[in-house]
UniProtKB/TrEMBL annotation:
Pfam families membership: p450
Keywords of this entry: Heme, Iron, Metal-binding, Monooxygenase, Oxidoreductase
Family (UniProt): Belongs to the cytochrome P450 family.
Domain of life (superkingdom): Bacteria
InterPro entries given in the database record: Cyt_P450, Cyt_P450_CS, Cyt_P450_E_grp-I, Cyt_P450_sf, Cytochrome_P450_monoxygenase
Cofactor(s) listed in the protein's UniProt record: heme
Protein name as annotated: Cytochrome P450
Species of provenance: Rhodococcus cerastii
Length: 461
């Protein structure tokens, strides 16, 4: 690590800092990430924000992000939002501590189940869920809400691929999905760094949260018990549950504990559902305003799967333009808007010539993804960036929607396969029109998502 020659003690911070409350003036609790983006534009690629003594150092300058991504000196940090999520995901991969032995075992066991090749085993289940979305849109009348529909799709996909369970989100209300959405909402509200906002949730919401958590755990435990009582040997490709039950840790030879398997399944539902749903919904928003892009996607899917036939597993990687649309969507609106890194050495550290007193920072992805290295029109949707060399090796360091290092997203190939398959299938089947005059409204919870994207869909095939 390069030690800065001169260390300035004072990190840039917002104007109008108050003696006790800190940088509370102009705080936006509804859209905090978008507020950070505005602050980063004003204050630069590293700055601090302090509220009631809670300090957050925000980094988005490419050189500094590259420095904190260096696994030799920095590692993932479980900050307040993660620790709140840990109440749900416990020692599941996403919320496990770096030093936790269960992380190492689960990472080793699950790595192969999330490899690119392993997607062959989930393709049919993904296709089945996409077909249910198409059938539901065929029989519907009036516009569809992009995020709600994508969320049903991604929930069903995880149900099928992780548990071989059909939640049937397009046919019925799913109390289990509602419980997951509620616990995430609760965690999001309670991990706010303004103590007053944290404490307004009240006892009723806390009681509901506890009941929801119990219900979620009980449901997943029952599905695991059923599987153990009746192993599914008829399937040629195992689902994620089967994989975890039958695969020993290659280093120790031990199987994952049942409680840990439950936590992994809940983690997939937390980490893999909203993120993928938001990404597909953002992409649909962009496509609905860009008939030229829609046409290019149709042309490529028609070439690999003529006459409206199902898209085969082997053909998904050939859908290059669709993939570039997904990549560019994740550049502009990375569903997980950032990640936390902490210096491996305890205590204060230095970064960019500043002292970082607590030794940890937040990487603000949508700002990194708009850094000047992306060119003068970094705010514009342009999938060509990924078709030309612009997103090649040099730019890998300014494109991090999947996080970084050892703790980067294990579900990346899964999400990409699902998103490309869904978008290509939808683009081929429908003319899609956005509401005239709609302006993108990005809402923030645990993830970033497009709000109010109402699409008129009419069949073209
Ligand atoms: C577009 C969709 C997705 C995006 C943008 C995304 C993004 C991310 C990011 C940024 C991280 C790193 C977080 C950190 O460092 O704190 C992460 C980790 C993780 N993601 Fe994803 N993710 C997506 C889909 C999925 C899916 C589909 C799954 C599983 C089915 C999944 C499972 C996980 C898990 C288990 C981790 C923790 C990995 C570890 O620490 O070992 N994600 N994801």
């Amino acid at each position: 690590m390069e030690i800065a020659q001169t260390i300035s003690k004072t990190l840039p911070h917002p104007r109008y800092r108050l003696p006790f409350a800190g940088d509370i003036v102009g705080l936006d609790t509804a859209k905090p990430v978008q507020k950070e983006m505005a602050m980063a534009t004003e204050l630069g690629g590293i700055y601090e924000r302090k509220i009631f003594g809670h300090r957050l150092v925000v980094v988005s300058e490419p050189e500094l992000v590259a420095e904190v991504n260096d696994e030799k000196y920095w590692a993932k940090f479980l900050a307040l939002p993660h620790r709140k999520l840990r109440a749900i995901g416990e020692d599941g991969l996403f919320t496990a501590f770096n030093s936790e032995p269960n992380w190492h075992s689960a990472h080793a066991v699950l790595g192969p189940a999330f490899s690119k090749g392993a997607m062959r085993g989930y393709h049919e289940a993904m296709q089945e869920s996409v077909n249910e979305l198409l059938t539901s849109w065929d029989s519907g009348s009036g516009p569809v809400d992009a995020y709600d529909e994508c969320s049903k799709l991604t929930f069903d996909v995880i149900g099928r691929c992780a548990l071989s369970h059909d939640f049937g989100s397009f046919r019925q209300a799913v109390p289990f999905a509602d419980a997951i959405a509620r616990v995430l909402h609760y965690v999001n509200k309670s991990s706010n760094d303004v103590p007053i906002i944290r404490s307004v949730l009240g006892r009723r919401a806390t009681r509901q949260h506890d009941e929801d958590l119990q219900f979620i755990r009980h449901t997943v435990d029952s599905l695991i018990e059923q599987r153990m009582a009746q192993p599914d040997s008829s399937k040629t490709s195992p689902d994620l549950l089967e994989h975890m039950l039958s695969t020993p840790d290659p280093d120790t030879g031990d199987r994952l504990a049942l409680e840990n398997i439950r936590n992994q399944i809940i983690t997939f539902l937390i980490a893999g559902n909203e993120t993928t749903a938001s990404t597909i919904a953002f992409a649909l928003h962009f496509l609905s305003t860009r008939p030229d892009e829609m046409q290019r996607i149709r042309a490529e899917v028609d070439a690999v799967a003529p006459d409206g036939t199902d898209i085969e597993f082997e053909n998904v990687p050939k859908l290059r333009r669709t993939r570039h649309v997904v990549d560019e969507t994740l550049r502009l609106w990375p569903a997980a808007p950032g990640y936390f890194r902490k210096a491996r050495e305890r205590g204060a550290t230095s970064l960019g010539g500043y002292e970082v007193p607590e030794g940890w920072v937040f990487v603000l992805l949508p700002q990194l993804h708009r850094s000047p290295e992306w060119g003068p029109e970094a705010d514009k949707f342009n999938p060509d960036r990924f078709a030309t060399g612009q997103a090649s090796d040099t730019n890998r360091r300014i494109y991090k929607p999947w996080g970084t290092g050892l703790r980067a997203c294990i579900g990346r190939q899964f999400a990409l396969h699902e998103a490309v398959l869904a978008l290509a299938s939808i683009a081929r089947r429908y003319e899609i029109r956005a509401d005239p005059g709609y302006q993108l409204d990005v809402r923030e919870a645990v993830t970033m998502r497009p709000h109010g994207v109402r699409l008129s869909v009419s069949r073209r095939l």
